[in-house]
């Protein structure tokens, strides 16, 4: 690592297509371009049922630490930490062993309690550093860069010249064998379900991501650079029905049922950090058509973690979806979120953090909260569909044509140098069979294919 300059690191991360392995998939080269005091590895994995980060750390902790050191070098950070829940004992042990070989690296382990959402960037930065990111701000504003565990693994691999072509994905729920897999990007849900031994029921729904912030998808969904898992639940599970509810129904129920108890605000993680977000005022603003209440409720500060809807509200309403709807309306009207000031850490914050076990029980997911060990066998799908937009920024533009033979790691879609984004690489050897407005379809090479 000592021979790589800051510019070389930034360029390599862009060319190898490294983005955040969760959330919006922010390009890693942009974070590497920052100047920071701290670099934090987010190993909280706070969404229930997902196991990818834990399983990855058990096997490649040294590479994750390597990626952390690379980001320290790029950003000039003098301190680094891995924020990880103490209950992840196997992953913690692997990290401790890896750090024995890094005596002078200024990297520490910061053990988190088991609450949700410990992995929220604002929450994690406060827990590790004691610094509070300004409302509507990002970690770099307090001198911190945060990267997901798998992102750091990909950063380490990128410096070896290896592009992002695979993803760690948990498949769990009503499957025969909950499992975590390392699969080529573009692998279909159908292939993943087969690798998990198939389904145990006929009527089901698929959630991409975690149960709190994930979204419903169908069997046409494929693995992207930000996919953390697929949770398969009965079609009539309350969590599924809740996610299917139309916003129009939410708004009608809010106007008629909200009792204005304020619990949604009192348990809001951002409010507890001192942000001006007040979901209760947004709900009241809808009920009484009072724009002033909405303005003081600051819905644009909502992270949409979902605690208000599944844990706080005694009426079963969704302040989260109301906040998201309000944000969309404000944006369409050209509203620009104003700057805001911190109101001070809530004195009862530590007592209002929601334990993950209680959340899992409230969600009705206890029976599915099972181990999902990483399968070591290579996964080789016959077809992959590589989405052109797998990250924040502009979608990649195809540079291949149908009939063209490609090899894993080859660029199949790129972005101009002056545009925020990263290229997309072939995840398998094969032939391009289709190029559409949103994806490149590649069929795996079969024995005897000569071309």
Provide structural commentary.
With 451 residues, this protein is an alpha+beta fold. It has 17 helices and 18 strands. It has a five-stranded mixed beta sheet, sandwiched between helices. A hairpin with a 5-residue loop joins β6 (166-173) and β7. α12 crosses α15 (319-332).
* Share of residues in helices: 25-40%
Number of beta strands: 18
Unreliable runs, pLDDT <50, ≥5 residues? none
The main β sheet shows up as:
5 strands, mixed
In spatial order, strands of the major sheet run 7-6-10-8-9
Apparent shape: globular
Mean pLDDT: 95
The gyration radius over C-alpha positions equals 22 Å
β-sheet strand percentage: 15-25%
Structural class: alpha+beta
Distance between the termini: 40 Å
Count of alpha and pi helical runs? 17
Write the layout of secondary structure elements.
Elements: H1 6-15, H2 28-32, E1 38-43, H3 52-75, E2 79-85, H4 89-100, E3 107-112, E4 115-116, H5 121-129, E5 144-148, H6 149-158, E6 166-173, E7 179-184, H7 189-195, E8 204-208, E9 215-217, E10 229-234, H8 238-244, H9 247-257, H10 263-266, H11 269-272, H12 279-288, H13 291-297, H14 307-312, H15 319-332, H16 349-352, E11 354-355, H17 356-363, E12 383-387, E13 397-398, E14 405-406, E15 411-414, E16 424-425, E17 430-435, E18 439-444
Parallel strand pairs: 1-2, 1-5, 2-3, 6-10
Antiparallel strand pairs: 4-11, 6-7, 8-9, 8-10, 12-18, 13-15, 14-17, 15-16, 17-18
Helix pairs in contact: 1-3, 3-4, 3-6, 9-12, 9-15, 12-13, 12-15
């Amino acid at each position: 690592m000592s021979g790589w300059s800051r510019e070389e690191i930034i360029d390599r991360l862009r060319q190898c297509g490294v983005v955040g392995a969760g959330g919006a998939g922010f390009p890693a080269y942009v974070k590497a371009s920052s100047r920071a005091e701290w670099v934090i590895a987010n190993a909280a994995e706070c969404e229930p049922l997902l196991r990818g980060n834990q399983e990855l750390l058990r096997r490649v902790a040294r590479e994750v630490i390597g990626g952390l050191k690379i980001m320290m070098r790029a950003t000039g950070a003098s301190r680094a930490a891995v924020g990880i829940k103490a209950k992840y004992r196997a992953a913690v042990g692997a990290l401790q062993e890896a750090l024995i070989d890094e005596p002078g690296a200024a990297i520490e382990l910061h053990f988190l309690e088991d609450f949700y959402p410990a992995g929220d960037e604002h929450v994690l930065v406060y827990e590790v550093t004691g610094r509070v990111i300004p409302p509507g701000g990002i970690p770099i504003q307090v001198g911190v860069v945060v990267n997901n565990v798998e992102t750091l693994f990909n950063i380490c691999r990128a410096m070896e010249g290896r592009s992002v072509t695979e993803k760690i994905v948990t498949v769990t729920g009503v499957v025969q064998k909950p499992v975590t897999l390392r699969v080529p990007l573009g692998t279909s849900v159908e292939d993943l379900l087969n690798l998990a031994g198939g389904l145990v029921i006929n009527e089901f729904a698929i959630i991409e991501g975690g149960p709190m912030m994930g979204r419903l998808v169908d069997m046409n969904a494929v693995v992207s650079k930000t996919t953390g898992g697929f949770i398969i639940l009965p079609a009539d599970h309350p969590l599924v029905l809740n996610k299917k509810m139309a916003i129009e129904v939410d708004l009608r129920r809010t106007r008629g049922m909200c009792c204005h108890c304020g619990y949604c605000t009192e348990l809001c993680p951002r409010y507890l950090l001192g942000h001006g977000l007040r979901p209760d005022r947004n709900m009241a603003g809808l009920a009484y058509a009072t724009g002033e209440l909405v303005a003081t409720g600051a819905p644009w500060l909502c992270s949409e973690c979902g605690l208000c809807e599944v844990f706080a509200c005694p009426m079963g309403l969704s302040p989260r979806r109301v906040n998201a709807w309000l944000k969309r309306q404000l944006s369409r009207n050209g509203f620009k979120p104003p700057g805001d000031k911190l109101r001070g850490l809530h004195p009862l914050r530590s007592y209002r953090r929601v334990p993950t076990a209680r959340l899992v029980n409230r969600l009705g997911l206890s029976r599915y909260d099972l181990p999902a060990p990483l399968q070591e066998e290579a996964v080789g799908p016959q077809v992959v569909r590589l989405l052109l937009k797998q990250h924040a920024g502009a979608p990649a533009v195809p540079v291949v044509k149908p009939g063209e033979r490609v090899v894993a790691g080859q660029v199949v879609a790129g972005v101009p140098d002056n545009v925020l984004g990263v290229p997309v690489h072939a995840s398998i050897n094969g032939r391009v069979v289709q190029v559409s407005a949103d994806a490149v379809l590649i069929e795996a090479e079969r024995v005897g294919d000569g071309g």
